[in-house]
Amino acid sequence: MSTDGLTFDIRLKDEPTPAAERERILANPGWGTHFTDHMITIRYKEGKGWHDARLEPYGPIPMDPASQVFHYSQELFEGLKAYRQADGTVTTFRPHANAARMNRSAKRMAMPDIPEQLFVDALDLLVRTDEAWVPTREGHSLYLRPNMFATTRALGVNRPADEYLFVVIASPSGDYYAKGIKPVSVWLSRDFTRAAPGGTGEAKTGGNYAASFAGQAQAVANGCDQVVWLDALEHRWVEEVGSMNLVFVYGSGPDARLLTPALTGTLLPGITRDSMLTLAPDLGIPVEEGKISIDDWQTGCESGEITEVFGCGTAAVISPVGHVKGDDREWSIGDGDPGPTSMRLRNELIGIQYGTRPDPYSWVHHIK
Ligand SMILES: *Cc1c(COP(=O)(O)O)cnc(C)c1O
Asked: Which homologous superfamily is 184-354 in?
């Protein structure tokens, strides 16, 4: 198969997972622990560009222990899903947006660009090959995880690597809310920050996650599900929740409007967030990108002005926030049930993704 001047060398697995075993996994896939039979690998070398594109059996990648990524974390990733449509075909959602974001991350991490079409073709090839792994159950999907990392064998720290590996793996995923949607509790982290101005907050790079685990652990230690990231300078302005963007709903019914923290460089520009910003106005829900402090959040909830708050991202789509806790304050949002505006937006987006609603934005990408 040839794409963007590159031909994929197709090496199918000799003994693919037997259908019965695959069905057993798909009956209860969990999240991110089972993988399909194949993966994509494409190599990059400075001067030579992208080369050696393969579809090959999923498995370990031999790595030199001096590979740059192990020492200096030159790495980035993406995340999106393939959806089984009612007619049996398979689609992905805005894959070109993921490709574009990957290249923005690459720029920040001093890594090479990958041609957008090559990125999308690589995903399509993997999904087509492992199509039997795309779940048919409602709310299930095949999670796709592209990533890229530095493979140059060198401990020198004064320049980026000159060799990289791009990999795509795929993991069947269950319904995030199999037991029903339950609002999460969140912890306002003042001891830890996820991202600082000039840092890598807007790049989807593993280092941001490495830096977040201590804050997440602190949230759990305080009885909360997720951590809220505040700005690095004043620990006052709300940025994200866990690995999701945040949206605040003001008012209700026909008067509902949305506010989401503006992209300042320290927030990850979510594609779900962007989709909400496009979708909501067409549903008659005005949206605004701005600044919101923890004081505004608390007083807004206490006065009843803020009616719903949710996190949004590819994995959960929308995750309502029900309770907020910090070292000096605590308050609740709503009555413990997911709010109507959150659920309406969620159903609209999921409807487009699974093809049960029209797609006026041409977001749906058909895998042929
Ligand atoms: C990936 C990610 C998001 C959500 O992005 P989507 O494209 O909507 O999945 C939000 N915040 C962080 C920190 C992320 O890594």
From this structure: D-amino Acid Aminotransferase, subunit A, domain 2 (3.20.10.10)
- Name residues whose C-beta falls within 8 Å of residue 240's C-beta, 6 or more positions apart in sequence: 194, 228, 229, 246, 261, 267, 268, 311
Per-residue pLDDT reduced to its tens digit, 141-186: 999 999 999 999 999 888 899 999 999 999 999 988 877 888 999 9
Q: Cβ of 254: how many Cβ atoms within 10 Å?
A: 7
User: Can you read off the two tokens belonging to residue 133?
Assistant: 């792994």
Report CA(244)–ligand 1 centroid distance (Å).
5
Q: Which residues contact 138 (CB under 8 A, 6 or more apart)?
A: 175
Q: What angle do CA 257, 258, 263 make, to 5 degrees?
A: 150
Whether 240 lines ligand 1, by a CB cut-off of 6 Å, is yes
What is the Å distance from ligand 1's center to 273 Cα? 8
Over residues 87-135, the pLDDT tens digits come to 999 999 999 999 999 999 999 999 999 999 999 999 999 999 999 999 9
The CATH class that applies to domain 2-173 reads alpha beta
Instruction: Calculate the alpha carbon distances from 355 to 80, 87, 275 in Å.
Output: 16, 9, 15
